């Protein structure tokens, strides 16, 4: 038996090989590009409408675009994907249009043109006729059919072999065992490459390409990915940076201390390599020390840091937060570069603070995020978030008060008073004032209306049950006018139907409740189920990144200074925030829910609920909420008592017995549907806030 190697001369097999090889590279890259685009919520989100530009807006815009190109879809990757899909498409075209060589099985009956049921006599007769017809001495080639003598000879040989396979015992055995009258045959291996590629000395280059692809490039890519994941934490920062932040953690740290701790990140060493660490450092420090925007405490922290990348990073951070002009294009660019790096490091510090479950460091981390995004120094006035507001304008509003004025408080004042405070010589012009007011009226301030606890489908909360914290609030931009009153139905949280498992588990959003019918059952809006609604991108003129605002809801124990329920983060909501114009607020009631396990003991538990926005200063809410956990046996007794119905008012016997002082006969309702029909209420639809918490006014 021999083995022959045949190359794909007709071009039938090699398109399969090229298609497979190309798809191995193209499909994963395509998936990564699609995934990265979907993970960028800023790609399709709206922005606050304003024409405000500060002196360094061009630098910030350039850095934003540069970062999008770096983190997003790189042009060469897009070109590679397009080329890959083009090659794959062409290979599919070749596969469909190229006729594959047909392999025919050798069959003596087909060659003789007889049926497999033919007798030996019929076989001999047919062979005799064909041999006379195709015998080389008698047959003549037909020119019209392009026949040659060789074709007739091959035909005669095939006829002879077919006859022998059906009559000669040895030849017949070869045909039965090996499928060929000549016995065991060799086989050929078709290589899915044109012969020209591996012939004439080209084979070594093909081997070299294979080795480069599968022996060098593929292990390198896999190794880079693997060791890259080991070098970074799940928050996306370098592990060495996370270790340094862990050492900087303190239980009494404030937002200024968080900023100082963030400067220890290793990412700054990569940003300021070699001589970059000392270039312009003295100039930055001199301007920072001379600035009145930073308190002496923060300046002292800068002096205590040793020279090097960390000292320059901290100096630039204070220059960024204080909006200090450095007078040098390179330093100005570096000033805006450090803030996004520090913001990314802050995510790791937030995770460390959450691991300790102490309230102060966790809040300091969130407040530091606000300051970094808005470029406002720690303890500085929230009014710096407004366009054109500088220290002179802020002093005109706040005067000598040690308590800073929030954007909401400023906007709540009458227009005439606001104008008299900030419009004038050395302050704002009339056009700047109008631009500021229009800007402030678009900021997404979440005003909490109510917060309560509940257990889905139950009227009471028992120990260790799964409790849902329901927070109801509306987006009311500062200075909003004609804000509609909150209706009672907006503050209720209707339980989904018992058979609607997707709604109970939160896998789908329920329709908005617009009222109740005469039996107390909810009436839903006719529109389709709502989709996730994202607020506009954080308005951050100085922050060189696009950032989608996040709201963090968590419970703390004020007496112990500890976090009782870890934060739940909300990036989207279930109702539209603005009308189609993107500026007019809808004032729709939003619902945020967080589930946690109730304490194992019955009692009244008072928590402080924090609703913190990571993007705006002073847009936070703090209020007390009380969780009432009933003993399981007591809750069962209370439920039984509520299920006992009152005597029917139209029952004559009941009225007479009541008049005589005789005991009335009470009926225990066992069927929940019967109880609903008689009382006009539904246990699943009752708002049990009065039983589970004490409402207080939100403290802003």
CATH topology of the largest domain: Sec63 N-terminal domain-like fold
Structural class by helix and strand composition: alpha+beta
Strand arrangement across the biggest beta sheet: 8-7-10-11
Count the DSSP helices. 26
For the biggest sheet, the summary is:
4 strands, antiparallel
Coarse shape: elongated
Poorly predicted ranges = 648-656, 658-694
Q: What is the radius of gyration computed over CA atoms, rounded to a whole number of angstroms?
A: 40 Å
Termini separation: 91 Å
Task: Produce a short descriptive summary.
45% of the residues lie in helices and 12% in strands.
Keywords summarizing the entry:
700 residues, alpha+beta, Helix Hairpins, 26 helices, 11 strands
Give your account of this protein's structure:
It is a single chain. By secondary structure, the protein is an alpha+beta fold. The chain has five domains: 4-95, no CATH class; 106-176, DnaJ domain (Helix Hairpins); 199-225; 237-439, Sec63 N-terminal domain-like fold (Orthogonal Bundle), CATH 1.10.3380.10; 444-629, C2 domain (Immunoglobulin-like, Sandwich), CATH 2.60.40. It contains 26 helices and eleven strands. A four-stranded antiparallel β-sheet has the order 8-7-10-11, covered by helices on one side. A hairpin with a 7-residue loop joins strand 10 and strand 11. The radius of gyration is 40 Å and the shape is elongated. Residues 638-700 are annotated as: Disordered. InterPro entries: C2_domain_sf, DnaJ_domain, DnaJ_domain_CS, Ig_E-set, J_dom_sf, Sec63-dom. The chain crosses the membrane at residues 12-34, 75-95, 205-227.
């Amino acid at each position: 038996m021999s083995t022959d190697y045949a190359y794909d001369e007709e071009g039938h097999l090699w398109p399969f090989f090229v298609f497979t090889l190309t798809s191995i590279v193209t499909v994963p890259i395509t998936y990564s590009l699609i995934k990265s685009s979907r993970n960028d919520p800023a790609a399709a989100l709206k922005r606050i409408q304003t024409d405000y530009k500060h002196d360094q807006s061009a630098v910030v815009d350039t850095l934003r675009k540069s970062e999008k190109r770096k983190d997003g879809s790189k042009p060469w990757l897009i070109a590679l994907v397009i080329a890959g899909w083009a090659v794959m498409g062409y290979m599919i075209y070749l596969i469909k249009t190229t006729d594959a060589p047909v392999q025919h099985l050798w069959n003596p009956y087909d060659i003789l043109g007889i049926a497999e049921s033919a007798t030996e006599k019929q076989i001999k007769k047919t062979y005799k006729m064909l041999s006379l017809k195709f015998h080389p001495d008698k047959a003549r080639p037909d020119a019209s059919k392009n026949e040659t003598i060789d074709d007739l000879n091959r035909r005669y040989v095939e006829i002879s072999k077919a006859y022998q396979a059906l009559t000669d015992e040895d030849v017949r055995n070869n045909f039965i065992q090996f499928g060929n009258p000549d016995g065991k045959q060799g086989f050929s291996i078709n290589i899915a490459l044109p012969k020209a590629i591996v012939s004439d000395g080209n084979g070594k280059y093909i081997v070299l390409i294979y080795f480069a692809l599968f022996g060098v490039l593929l292990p390198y890519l896999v190794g880079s990915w693997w060791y890259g994941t080991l070098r970074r934490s799940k928050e996306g920062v370098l592990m060495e940076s996370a270790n340094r932040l862990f050492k900087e953690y303190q239980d009494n740290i404030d937002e200024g201390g968080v900023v100082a701790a963030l400067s220890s990140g290793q990412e700054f060493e990569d940003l300021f390599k070699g001589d970059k660490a000392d270039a312009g450092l003295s100039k930055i420090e001199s301007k920072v020390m001379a600035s009145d925007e930073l308190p002496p405490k923060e300046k002292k922290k800068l002096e205590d840091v040793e020279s090097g990348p960390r000292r320059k990073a901290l100096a630039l951070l204070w220059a960024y937060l204080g909006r200090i002009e450095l007078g040098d294009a390179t330093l100005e660019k570096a000033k805006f570069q450090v803030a996004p790096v520090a913001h990314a490091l802050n995510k790791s510090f937030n995770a460390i603070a959450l691991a300790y479950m102490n309230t102060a460091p966790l809040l300091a981390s969130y407040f530091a995020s606000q300051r970094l995004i808005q470029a406002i120094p720690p303890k500085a006035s929230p009014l710096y978030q407004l366009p054109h507001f500088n220290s002179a304008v802020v002093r005109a509003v706040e005067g000598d008060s040690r308590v800073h004025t929030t954007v909401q408080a400023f906007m709540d004042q009458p227009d005439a008073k606001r104008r008299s405070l900030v419009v004038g010589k050395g302050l704002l012009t009339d056009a700047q004032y109008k631009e500021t007011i229009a800007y402030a009226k678009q900021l997404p301030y979440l005003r909490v209306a109510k917060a309560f606890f509940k257990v889905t489908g139950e009227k009471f909360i028992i120990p260790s049950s799964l409790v849902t914290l329901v927070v109801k609030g509306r987006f009311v931009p500062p200075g909003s006018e004609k804000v509609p009153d909150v209706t009672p139905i907006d503050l209720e949280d209707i339980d989904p139907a018992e058979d609607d498992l997707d709604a109970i588990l939160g896998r789908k959003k329920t329709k908005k409740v617009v009222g109740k019918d005469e039996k107390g059952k909810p009436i839903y809006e006719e529109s389709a189920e709502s989709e996730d609604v994202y607020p506009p991108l954080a308005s951050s003129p100085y922050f060189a990144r696009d950032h989608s605002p996040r709201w963090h809801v968590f419970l703390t124990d004020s007496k112990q200074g500890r976090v009782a329920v870890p934060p739940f983060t909300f990036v989207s909501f279930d109702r539209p925030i603005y009308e189609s114009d993107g500026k007019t607020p809808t004032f729709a009631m939003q619902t945020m829910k967080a589930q946690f396990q109730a304490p194992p003991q019955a009692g009244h538990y008072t928590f402080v609920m924090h609703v913190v926005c990571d993007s705006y200063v002073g847009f936070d809410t703090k209020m007390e909420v009380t969780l009432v956990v009933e003993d399981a046996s007591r809750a069962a007794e209370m439920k039984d008592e509520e299920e006992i119905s009152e005597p029917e008012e139209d029952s004559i016997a009941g009225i007479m017995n009541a008049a005589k002082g005789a005991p009335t006969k009470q009926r225990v309702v066992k069927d929940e549907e019967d109880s609903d029909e008689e009382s006009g209420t539904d246990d699943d639809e009752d708002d049990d806030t009065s039983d589970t918490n004490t409402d207080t006014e939100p403290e802003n």
